[in-house]
Specification:
single chain, 148 residues, alpha+beta, 7-stranded mixed β-sheet, 6 helices, disordered C terminus
Amino acid sequence: MIKLRFHLLEPLRFPLINRFYKSYYPAGKAKKDEVIWIGEDSKGIQACVRFKQFDEYQLLTGMLVHPDHRSQGHGIALLEACNDQLTTTQCYCFAFSHLETFYQGSGFVIIKDNELPEPLQSRINRYRQSGKTLTPMIYAQRSKLELS
């Protein structure tokens, strides 16, 4: 497995994220007010995840691992690297059904729609109306021992 370095995206490198999305996940588009974590190697960005900030919670969105690096543990490693981000403010995500197990293995638990804050209930309903099969999840804090 190729070792990636994980860190917050430097603001000057913001255009690289949207180029990365355009190449591998055209529906994804980063916004400058999001917190963005990346995993990179000598060839560039290989993984990223964004956190949309709300007043009392955040939404993990747009997680992407380069197709050549999938199923190698990079997604899990990225989420472990940004554990402080996940635990500082309550974090929700909308998992595609085929990724539920991945997110559960990374500390998220499935919740009911009515357990989401109202703005996220509206958002997940809009996404579903566009044909996406999504499961609402919430990050359940894990101790550092569990991450080791």
